[in-house]
Structure formats: structure tokens, C-alpha cells
Amino acid sequence: MDFSFTEEQQEIFAAVREICDEELKPRAKEVDERGEYPWENIKMLAELDLFGVPVPAEYGGLGLGILDWAVIGELLSAACTTTGAVYGAHLLAEYPIMEFGSEEQKEKYLRPLASGEKIGAFGLTEPGAGSDAASVRTRAELDGDYYVLNGTKVFITNGGEADIYVIIANVAPEKGARGITAFIVEKGTEGFTFGKDEEKMAYPALANRELIFQDARVPKENVLGRERRGFRVAMSTLGAGRIGMAIGAVGLAQAAYDAAVAYAPTREQFGQPISEFQAIQFTLADMATRIEAARWLTYHAAWRKDQGLEFEKEAAMAKVFASETCVEVCNKAVQIHGGYGYTKDYPVERYYREAKLFDIVEGTSEIQRLVIANRLLKEAMKK
Amino acid sequence: MHIIVAIKQVPDTSEVSIDPETNTLIREGVPSIINPYDENAIEAGLQLKEEYGGTVTAISMGPPQAEEALRQALAMGCDEAILLSDRAFAGSDTLATSYVLAQAIRKIGNYDLVICGKQAFDGDTAQVGPGIAEQLGIPQATYAMEVRVDGKKIQVKRLLAGSFETVEMKLPALITADKHMNVPRHAGLRGVMAARKKEIPTWTLEDIQADPSKCGLSGSPTTVVEIFPPQRSHKTERLEGEPQQVARLLIEKLRDAQVL
């Protein structure tokens, strides 16, 4: 067992850390206040090759692993969680094309996603379907050389801003999961428009929009994988997405902890810094311990993915543990700041609002526990 | 055009403190960085290359670990890097340093422009750039803000105290970059990965055919007698009263302290 990163990985992460410290972190408050999609940050990440991390070199990527992608995502999330979320959601289009795309699709769509020239988004969730992907109602009907899509997706991260969408629809609703098909849909396709941009508890700068398909005609060659085999595409993407959400949560939790551990020694009460009180010390110790555990759970899930091993259970474990850790740690970070933590003068106020996202999206904590239990029971039956 | 950028690895002074007992720099655990003005020099070289085509070679004189700084220069986009390292170079003052760098530049040969940072963060002498130009017998323009290449000539807008000056020089020439000249780019991940694969040759005294008596301590007429931090005092005096009165009192105090 070896827990160390190679020299190359360390240099790559150091370069990302420099970008985070000098560019993203100083602007994070402004991104939140302005509430506009952070194109400036995104263009910079594209220029510095961050969108091509896990994509093979033959399609213009860096040819690194999901673990490398995750460590970079952690740093981004800690510096500017909104920008980290864009990076995370981008993978949800990049990843399925990388895994299931044809040669032509990879040339046409993966290459611009890897360079960051185009941003990606993944459209699964509907008012009545999300983790329950088999209930997707968006219809796709074959008409000559085109599929005609009808339906509405909701909460889609990068929606409206992205150029390339991986859309989960059903070609045979009566067959449930067996009708599910994945499509690559370009922004600008006739009949494909954008609806409501959700107003959320946090992330005003992050686009989470409705995707509306009204007789949208998608060329047949844009079926991703095979017709009626889209359930696997959706599940596999959700699996990678869980690693993304878990690592985003680890990054945000780390930022909140860093703020708390820096603040505690500066705040005096009863004639001493509050960091001298055991209650604060124990809180900090628990925060750091949980973050460490969440980080290694996530790295391990990502490592398994890179090794080609089964990783669904591990990713779900990482996601539920990291997101609940994030909510807990951000809560404690505000608590340590006291009244100041409740004001917008300190970043922990924002972190606290941002944290809640993680134990809801990409499958709630409850869904993750179902996934884990399902796996555990299957494994137990095999014995 | 062929551009040579001379850089120096320095301790990150924002993290350096002075031992109050010994009055020496506490360098332990302090990360090394490229001298910030040298990052401006690299950026200037890369921008010129992007505009006029050509190559950028980074050179640095220093201990073996100065290779890290060169590796970073490669990651930013420099094409080649050469480390000048030899025990004989140790203890060089600005005269000896500029001699060594000039010898290396002679060996590289066929260059159009040499760019240095305006000064180093640690020594703050601003002498090495001009020294190299003297050694090479080429024209120089320090504190460059903007440059424009026109055939075999270069126009340089210089930042002086309170004014600008534009000069024109024949190439090859040397400029030193001011921090207002540009915003140094970050190294992209592709650059970081490519830089790892590049060879950084080390040139010794022999390689650059340097005269040992002009290098290191023996080639350095400067002696540092003492290094000490400025005396710090924390005496605070509070002036109170009507604004006009306080202002008058303040002027008096400043005159007494010979500040005015």
C-alpha cells in the first residue's frame, strides 16, 4: 500500500494550488455576490488545461486518472465552490462520452470538452425522476434519421451556459429502464430551449436550469452508446458523479475548517483565545478527523475506478460520508466564529449555505444508503 | 527571434524572518521561488515569442536545486533551460555573477535579446542585468515597461521616477523588466507535464570557458561586512486636540525627528 502521490502529481497539484490561491479564492466572495455564471474563472481553467484532466491524450486531454481529477476538484471547491461545481458538472458530459462514445463522437464532442472550448452538462433529473432513472419521462421517438425529443429536465447544472448536453430519454416508456437511451444534444438544436434558472439557498452564480425539449430533432448518430442501453450510461455517470460530489464536499469542508482553525486563536474571551478552551479544541479535532476520513474514502473510490475495479459502493459511501461531514464541519465552523460567523464578513457564512447542496444532489444521503445497502446485501448473498 | 531570460531562485521573502539573536535570515523551511521580477522577464520573453516567433531560453546560476526554478520557467512556456552550477561560482557578487551569465550567453550565442528582472528580491542590487550587458558589450535599457521590435531594432519604454522614457537600441540588446510590464502567466497543467520531460543541462566553469579568477569569491570585489535588520521601535505618541493644532504639532514633531 502506498498513500503517496508521484512527483508529477505533486507538481500538477502545486500548479493548481497556485491558481486557486492567487486567482479563485480572492474572487470567491465576489462570484457569490455578483451571482453571474463565473465565465472569467472558467475561461482561465480552460486555458490552464484543467478541463481535460481525465481525457486521453489522443482526444486532447492530459490522460490522467479520475483520482487526479478528484484531487484537483477538491482544491477548486475549497477555493471557489461554485467554480468547483462547474468543473464537476462538466465531467458528467465528458465522462459518458469518454466511456461510451463512438470514435466520431469523441472527435466531435470530447475534444472541445477536453480543451474547455465548450462546457458540458448532464440532463437526467426531471420533476418525477432523478436517482430513479428508469422513470425518466422525456420521450425520444425515431423519425427517419432523427430522434424527436419531448420533455423537461430540471436543476441541470451548467444548463443554458453549456454547449454539449448528455440527455437521458426513453424510446420505449412501457419498457422502463430497458427503453432508456442517452443522447448527445448540442445547444442551438431546434426545439431545445432553456427554462427557469432556479433561485437557490446558495450558489447564485451557478446555473441550474430547466432544459425544455419540444420536438427537438437530434441526429441518429448522436445516440450515446446503443439505443435502449442508456440506463447503464446514466448509472455509470452517476457513479463518477458521486466521486465528484464527495470531493467537492471534502474541499468545502477543508475550507471551512481552515477558516475555523485560523480564527479560533485570534478570538479572545474570558482573557484567553477561545482555542485554549477544550470545547473548541475537541470540535476542531473532530472536524479535521472527519475531513481526513472523508478525503481518503473518496480517494479510495476514485483509485478503484482508475484501477478498473468495482467502485459503486465505495463512491456512494464516500458521497454520503463526505457530504454529511461537510454539512457538519461548516456548521461547526460558523459556531466557532460565533456571531461573526453569521455575518457576510466571514466566508463561513457562505460555506454554511453551500454545504447543504452536497447531501442532496447526485442522489440524496438516503439514496446513497440504499445503494450501499443494496450492494452489501448482494455481497452477503454471494457468500 | 532568440530570447535569453536570466532568472534567479530566491527564498520566498514573504515567509522569511530574521533571527533576532544572530541577525541572520532564517531560511529553514522557507520555500524557494523564482524572483518575482524574473517572472515578469519570462512573461516578456514569452509574449515577444508569441508576437514575433522564435525561442526563449531560460538560464540560471545557482546550486543544483535552482533547477526547480528553471523547470517552472519551462512549465510557463520557455523552450529550453540551462543551469549554470559549479562550486567555483559560489560566493559570487554581482560582478562575478554577471560575468558567469555573460559567458553562458556567449556560449549559447546567436541571440537577439537578453531579458532580466529589474532586480532580485533578496539582494535588491539591480546590478546583474546591466553587468551582463557590459560584459557582452551590448546596449541595455533597464526598468522596461513596454517593448516593440522593429526589424533589427527594439524600442523600449522605460519607467523612471515620475516619468517615462522611450529609447531605441540595436539588437542584440539587454532589457530588465519592471513589474508593471506585464502580469506573469500561470503554468498550465500541460506545461507542467511537458516541463518534466525536458532535459536541463548543467554547465560548469569549464563548459562556459570561464576564468576562475573572475568567478565566485575570488572574482568578487564586494564584501558584505554586516547584515542587520532595521532597528524597530514601537513608540507611539498620540496627538490630541483641534485638527489644526494637531497638524501643526505633527509638523513640529516631524521636523524635530528630521523627517521633514
Description:
- Chain A is of the alpha+beta class.
- Chain A is built from ten helices and ten strands.
- Chain A has helices spanning 7-34, 39-47, 66-79, 81-100, 103-115, 230-263, 278-306, 312-337, 347-355, 365-382, and strands at 120-123, 139-143, 146-157, 164-170, 180-186, 192-197, 208-219, 223-224, 268-269, 272-273.
- In chain A, strands 1-4-5-8 form a four-stranded mixed beta sheet.
- In chain A, helix 3 (66-79) packs antiparallel against helix 7.
- The longest helix of chain A is centred in the middle third of the chain and has 34 residues, at 230-263.
- Chain A is globular and about 80 Å long.
- Chain B is globular and about 70 Å long.
- The longest helix of chain B is centred in the N-terminal third of the chain and has 17 residues, at 36-52.
- Chain B has helices at 36-52, 67-76, 94-108, 128-136, 189-197, 243-256; strands at residues 2-7, 9-11, 17-18, 25-26, 32-34, 55-61, 80-84, 113-117, 140-150, 153-160, 163-170, 173-177, 202-203.
- In chain B, helix 2 (67-76) packs across helix 5.
- In chain B, the strands form three sheets. A nine-stranded mixed beta sheet of chain B has the order 11-10-9-12-8-1-6-7-13, sandwiched between helices. A two-stranded antiparallel sheet of chain B has the order 2-5.
- Helices cover 28% and strands 26% of the residues of chain B.
- Chain B has 260 residues and is of the alpha/beta class.
- Chain B has six helices and 13 strands.
- Classes of the chains: A alpha+beta (383), B alpha/beta (260).
- The A-B interface holds A 7-8, 11-12, 15-16, 18-19, 22-23, 47-50, 53, 62 and B 75, 186-193, 196.
